[in-house]
């Protein structure tokens, strides 16, 4: 089963993010219910590995972190693969990600080493799409994100099934944070 661990976006951010998506023509907008900040992409995992991960996450203290939007940006450079909302990589958010990744490794699930760029994907562009020269102007018109900082919700284990219309997500489990 293709899975990942993520933080759902705060409820107060949904309406402003939907307005931003409306101003970003082209590509495929991520459904409001699916907006998230990925902490660890697990790829395809067998059921026993996911059960071990569930036990590891339930045994750990997962402290919530403040999520602070910083800017709208792109992943993929001039040929954007996605338009994202970048999130400030605070020490608390980085510590939460590190705790989650340690639990993943303790469940014997391999993770690649990668730089942490916390973000929420708003719009996906197919790899075959030509570069959109108007995208930088659209991003500039969006300006600074309207959302106030907010505390993260529970760490959530999602499944991701790929379809021609885009990924279909399902929540498998949630791991509520404990106040610091």
Identify the overall geometry: globular
As laid out across the biggest beta sheet, the strand order is 3-1-9-10
The tally of beta strands, per DSSP, is: 10
Largest sheet: 4 strands, antiparallel
Question: What name does CATH use for the topology?
Answer: Cyclic Phosphodiesterase, Chain: A
Helical amount among residues, as a percent range?
Answer: 25-40%
| CATH homology superfamily | Cyclic phosphodiesterase
Account of the 3D structure:
The chain has a single domain (2-175), classed as Cyclic phosphodiesterase (Cyclic Phosphodiesterase, Chain: A). 26% of the residues lie in helices and 33% in strands. The chain is built from four helices and ten strands, in the order E-H-E-E-H-E-E-E-H-E-H-E-E-E. The strands form three sheets. The chain has a four-stranded antiparallel β-sheet with strand order 3-1-9-10. It has a four-stranded antiparallel β-sheet with strand order 2-7-6-5, with helices on one face. The protein has a two-stranded antiparallel sheet with strand order 4-8. A hairpin with a 6-residue loop joins strand 5 (69-75) and strand 6 (82-87). Helix 2 packs across helix 3 (91-106).
